[in-house]
Amino acid sequence: MTKIPLRRFTARVLPIDEQGRVLLLHGFDPARPESRFWFTIGGAVEDGETLQEAAARELFEEVGIRAGVEEFTGPHAEALIEFEWGEYAFTQDQSFYAIRVGDAVVSFEHMEQIEKDTTTEYRWWSPEELESTAEVVHPPDLATILRKITEGGR
User: Fold this and answer.
1) Distance separating alpha carbons of residues 66 and 48, to the nearest angstrom
2) What are the TM regions of this chain, as residue ranges (predicted)?
3) What is the pTM of this model?
4) C-alpha–C-alpha distance, residues 110 and 95, integer Å
5) Domains of the chain by range and CATH?
6) How far is CA 12 from CA 32, 33, 46, 56, in A?
């Protein structure tokens, strides 16, 4: 099956709690539901948005946490990646922004339906847990990025 090519620019969000753990989502590609993975919150920049504005919007839409644009730090990492998801073949520029969230309450209430259908759970991860897990985590170097943020201060 030929995939639809899609080029996009994304803001990836790294919500960090008081223990220095990052909030990740767990889910799957609807074309391959048997392959589960952990991933960062975030998504494509919409017309007229800055990356930080997209980060704030995605944080609310995906996990129900409201934050002001000025609360984000970064980008702490940037990458160009290619991957397939559903019927699409993505080429994606991604920029990773961090935000301190304290004791945040997570909610999937504002997700789009396809996100609700393919996101199974959330979890807070320490750098040590990210380094030692056998589960698939995107991006693979997330523990290094997280350490850079938490050890480098806010």
Assistant:
1) 20
2) none
3) 0.94
4) 22
5) 4-151 (3.90.79.10)
6) 23, 23, 14, 10
